[in-house]
Amino acid sequence: MILATAACSAASSDRTEPSTPRARELVDLRSRILDYTAGFEPDGAYSPPGDDERERLARGVGRLLDGDAAAAQRLLAPLGLGVTRLTDTDSGRRYDEIAATRSGGDAENWGRLYLTADSALRWNVQVPHPVSDRATEELGVRLLEETPSGALVVAGAHRRAGDSGEADVAHSEDSAFHAVVEELQKRGVPGLQLHGFAQTSDRPYEAIVSGGAAQKASDEASALADRMEADGLRVCRGWSARCPLEGTQNVQGRSAERRHAPFLHVELSPDARDDGPDADETARALADLLRTWAER
Question: Does residue 246 carry a pLDDT above 80?
Answer without folding.
Answer: yes
